Amino acid sequence: MVLQDFESQLFSTTVQSEIAFVMENLGIPPATMRERAAFWLSEMGLAGFETREPASLSGGQKQRLALASVMAADTPMLILDEPTTDLDPLSAAAFAERLARLAHAENRTVILITHDLDLLERADAIAVMDEGRIVRCAPAREILSDAAFLEGAGVRPPQIADLFARLGAAENSPRNIDDAEKQLHGLGLAPKKRPKRRPRGGGELAAVRSARFGYKADRPVLDGVDLTIRGGEFVALLGQNGSGKSTLARLVCGVHAPWSGGALLGGAPVASLSAADRTTRVGLVFQKSRPSDFFAPRAAKKSLSA
After folding, report:
1. pLDDT by residue (tens digit) across 218-240?
2. String of b and e for 178-204 (b: at least 16 CB within 10 Å)?
3. Who has the most CB within 10 Å: 110, 139, 150, 168?
4. Residues ≥6 apart with Cβ < 8 Å to 183
5. Is the dihedral of CA 229, 235, 238, 244 positive or negative?
6. 109 and 158 both lie in a single domain
7. For residue 159, what are the domain limits?
8. Quick one: DSSP state of residue 137?
9. By three-state DSSP, how is residue 162 classified?
């Protein structure tokens, strides 16, 4: 089982040790362990991370590691509790394909607990729960296309199913974007392009200039990053797991100090501001709530006083 709080089941000193631990307890021969470990680390995009400390990984990479350690045990049943919460969309889609392959090609049973209905297109059946009861269990296709039922159960329906329900064509709801576009054209409802919005014109609120930073001296996470954020803007940071999104946010707040380059708040260097001053200018909600996750890995702790 992969827990919803997947980090609570990571405790080894290296990625390699973490994925080996479950197999060691099952008495799996060393040669088989090495083969499975290499396969699942590659499948989860963690090849080359064998000697890394799990605490040094991004949230999504930690979730991949928890998944890999359980997958490598090769049990006949897997229970996965919100296994894609910290995965980027491409990784989540690839993982859904792996699950379908495990179930249908390798005859392993998968129980997936999730709020992300886009992961369930390949599922055989869906059981919907409400207030401690299973209110409906049916083939996935039947439930995913029933937008009214899902809304009544407090579950947001897939966007395509919701759209075609609103158009009065729920019975012909397509399963993917391409089919949806074709049907919309057939109904004379071709999608229109939205006009581009101009950015807000507030003054510079925060910025990083040629910022370079990492958690190990030979492995930068950010390398020459430039970003300007103006007052009143709504800015999204997008990228794959491990691309540096959370690290960049921590530079802006002063949790970490860049190796080179600078981070500014209101035009003032972050390093020149006291902790009290920083907290009046910016608030940060961390990806995880445990204090040990805020400041690890160890190599970054020296920058806290900065």
Report:
1. 788 899 999 999 988 899 998 88
2. eebeebbeeeeeeeeeeeeeeeeeeee
3. 150
4. 164, 169, 172, 174
5. positive
6. no
7. 125-186
8. E
9. helix
